[in-house]
């Protein structure tokens, strides 16, 4: 029996790969469009009552109460600003491209180190090929690293290939997240009480955005509290070869 010629196998594989690519492209585009529209509409609609509240707050006699109200309103306005900025950025960036995750993430880790931030990086051997949206994937990664730096002092990033997926883990030395909160922290604007009371300057959007991006690429994020303390956030993504 002859080995199949390139004419029999090559084009078929190319066709299958192209079909999978197009399907993912369509899925991502629909996801981005839906969410962008929703985020823009909600942020816009929230601004109107907030402006009215700001005007009314100016009439509160008690100075302490008035200041606190204005502070809270300022916080809400900045969250809305961040949401709108995110929606605009998403709309502008939606091309899928083949990427080497080792390279993309090592550069991002290097940028942190150049800025004097403690971010370690161990790559997987060889290139780690995925197909995705560069800016969105980098954002998912940096959101998780920013959290490790904010809540857990330092970030150790490791890339590992596991069968048909790549696992990018970000480990820190902080307090971790109680297991009962694991679902909650992926909800938009959700923050643990301890983070609200400490001034960490977050919006509660970081993990929900990271999760949305990873899911839109056909992956998922998992959490682990380490026995020795600290949180491990693992971003799982399908390798290009698996699609
Ligand atoms: P934020 O802008 O508040 O950091 P995120 O969505 O990124 O929002 O995270 C949600 C909440 O999850 C945070 O407010 C914090 O309470 C908790 N969290 C996230 N990452 C970590 C971490 N590495 N260690 C401990 N707690 C974390």
From TrEMBL:
The lineage of its organism: Bacteria, Pseudomonadati, Pseudomonadota, Alphaproteobacteria, Rhodospirillales. This is histidine kinase. GO terms for molecular function: ATP binding; phosphorelay sensor kinase activity. Its EC number is 2.7.13.3. It is a multi-pass membrane protein. The keyword Amino-acid biosynthesis does not apply. Signal peptide: none annotated. GO terms for cellular component: plasma membrane. Residues 41-241 form the Histidine kinase domain. It is an enzyme of class 2 (transferase). It comes from Nitrospirillum viridazoti CBAmc. Keywords: ATP-binding, Cell inner membrane, Cell membrane, Kinase, Membrane, Nucleotide-binding, Phosphoprotein, Transferase, Transmembrane, Transmembrane helix, Two-component regulatory system. Residues 1-33 form the HAMP domain. It catalyses: ATP + protein L-histidine = ADP + protein N-phospho-L-histidine. The chain holds residues 197 to 439 of 439 of the full protein. It is found in: Cell inner membrane. It comes from the Bacteria. Its main location: membrane.
